Amino acid sequence: MSAVLPTAAFLYERVRRVIPPIEWPAFVEDIEAILALKRERNAIILAHNYQTPEIYHCVADIVGDSLALARKAVTVEAQVIVLAGVHFMAETAKLLNPNKTVLIPDMGAGCSLADSITAQDVRLMRESYPGVPIVTYVNTSAAVKAESDICCTSGNAKAVVESLGAPRVIMLPDEYLAKNVAAETKVGIIAWKGRCEVHERFTPADIRELRAAHPGVIVLAHPECHPEVVTEADFSGSTAAMSDYVEREKPPRIVLMTECSMSDNVAVAHPDVEFVRPCNLCPHMKRITLANIRAALEENRHEIRIDPGIAGPARRAVERMLSI
To answer: Which amino acids does the record list as binding iminosuccinate (predicted)?
Structure first.
């Protein structure tokens, strides 16, 4: 490590348990360049929990799940925001910071949930269920948010649903999240058929096999997983709730039924916890790299722009969520 610059050497100490020494030199030049560009451009990087450790721990300024990033985006003072995540997250940051430059390193970083529903679909649902409020997961486009009454995340979905005081609600677009919330509330839930391509692949059999192979392992499942997976797990919650669980309970051995990089990022702060890693990668999150973060900052590449006719109602739907 003596050949690398001092800042990079310091940062490597954070991630040495999850990034092999042989891989680290490939990251150093981009990390140093990104740190310099942030200072030059008055820029800040928001990174989702599913980003790889060299992004999450070495160049990001604010990290967290969708709810945390949405909340913190409101308070950002920097003039330029780089969203290390997927497209709907960058749109959400732009909705909350309309006068700032919001960049996404790769416009192709999409989401199977966001792609599962359109604004026209929401309008048809409203026609089919007149008077029923529509709760829309933040994993959707700004156009879909604009047709909704309020947004939610996996971390506050139950609270949002119950805050409306309605006997039933339409919850879009994640079918499994809607069913998992329905199991926890008396509010009737009308669900859509969208699914996360990462979480839908986990099965109860996966959990039973993990328990057999790793006796005593604690299983945490994301609420985008099938309800049978959630039932089989020891705990279910958002990525922030999973991280809090590890911090609070400090189990000797744990498995997170969610995207791969989450385990690496949490493991950095918990050297005494053994993380069993069933690896389901999100191909969209993995489109974000140090190289294209650097390029976005150098070239002002991939700026997020939202139609003004959509931005107002979409922003209000997000702001209502943040007030819960």
So the answer is: 48, 66, 137-139, 154, 222-224, 239
